[in-house]
Amino acid sequence: MMTSFGKRLRMLRREKDITMVELAAVIGTTQPTISKYERGIHEPDLPMVKALAEYFDVSVSYITGETDTREPYYKVTDQYINDLVNDLESEGYDIKDKSRDEIIKLMIMALEMDKLYKKTD
Fold it and tell me: Most confidently modeled of 6-20, 42-56, 68-82?
């Protein structure tokens, strides 16, 4: 039985007009694994879900079927994340530009994981 994730993955792959073999090569897995994802036989781990979402330029929530909003999560929440970093700075943390980028990446990852955990609860 095809899962919401499997349906979304297949739809996104077909929209991009690429084969399972091509997708597997780009993502770093195999064609049989992509096939199992699409058919709902196997669920990918979080790093793979994130890699697929990034490749298709959609949010993790979209590719997992949690929402119909395609826009990547990081684009939707840039202002929110910048506000959080600014709050840290106002609390006395001296955050350099390079550190700021890393903090933003970690926040995005934490928010994405939180959404996935809430979905499974």
Answer: 6-20
pLDDT, tens digit (0-9, with 9 covering 90-100), for 32-63? 999 999 999 999 998 899 899 989 989 888 89
Fold annotation for 1-68: 434 Repressor (Amino-terminal Domain) (1.10.260)
C-alpha dihedral (97, 99, 102, 104), degrees to nearest 10: -60
**Dihedral (CA of 76, 115, 38, 47) sign:** positive
Best CA proximity match to 6, nearest among 45, 34, 40, 30: 40
Beta carbons within 8 Å of 108's beta carbon, 6+ residues apart: 73, 74, 77, 81
Distance CA 118, CA 102 (A): 24
Q: Where exactly are the structural domains of the chain? A: 1-68, 77-121
Alpha helices in 1-121 (DSSP H): 4-15, 20-27, 31-39, 46-56, 60-63, 73-76, 78-90, 97-120
